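Sequence and structure are no longer studied apart. As an example, we show below a sequence and the tokens encoding its fold:
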Amino acid sequence: MTITTRAAITRYAHSPWEVTELQLDEPRAHEVRVKFYAAGLCHSDDHITRGDAPVRLPVVGGHEGAGIVESVGPHVTRVKPGDRIVCSYIPACGKCRPCSTGHQNMCDEGKNASTGMFSDGTFRFHDGDTDLGGFCTLGTFSQYAVVSEWACVALADDIPFDIAALVGCGVPTGWGSAVHAAEVRAGDTVVIYGAGGVGSNAVQGARYAGARFVVVVDPVDFKRDMAKVFGATHTFADATSAHDYVVEATWGQLADHAICTPGVLTEDIVNAAVQVTGKAGKVTVTAVGKLEERAVNIPAGMLIGYQRQVRGALFGDSNPLYDIPRLFDLYRAGDLKLDELVTRRYSLDEINQGYQDMLDGKNIRGVIIHEH
């Protein structure tokens, strides 16, 4: 049976989020209908409204979410009605080539993330005669959504929904960028550019992996202060000051790793990251930039002379089915800070204020609490 749901959508690039009522279909084969209780306000969704993401519009926003399975379609085996879940913004079917070789972050079922289209070429959200997809085929800015069962990860009763939602994207993306993609090791020097919802977790990952120096670059005072809470050893407002410190602290050897997690990636940030890394250093690029700009533009000699590496990281090289539960275990043990990530909670009607607060540097992460 089709139901009505309240959702935040954007109809055109350079337009704000609009809260409206949509019709939502029943789940089909290998799909489930989720009643979301919380959704994270990730910067990636803001890229949609600014025209910086190649996303089919109109679209239901949101790709961080946690809630309860309301109903299931045919052949669903991973979850059942009543189960508490967190959604991974990249599904993990467990059977495709990437999944079977330990790269669930590149699961083939994620191929329609930018359109919200399901594998059969159809959509589940409808606004009159207009079909809408959910961002990353989720749409967590809706009270209810139909998602793939492969995007569902079991959530234990002791983890609150508002905390769990962030572990569907921002936490493993940041943490994994340091631990998995960069492969930070004990004694390393790490420089992290951007200390928002993803960068804060890169800080946590680098520190937990045993980095000696975790240096954060962010122009916002509040984010630099919070970076110290998450484990940063030193913070700077600009890249030049950070570079000068790293030169001094490492006796000129420079950093082992630079991780790029700003809200908007720029060529200047990537160049600073390359220059701050020493011999055999690695630059890990996690953030995205503006669609029409090239952020990676490096003379070959900058890489060859010091044998530096520049690589991208999707979902922090994390495997959702394994890493999401493991991160919750670290949270329970006191080794991962999640409560501190949530700066403010908003109603769905306050979504545009939430994103303005993010842009103003007031939040590490804002969270939408859905009303039911």
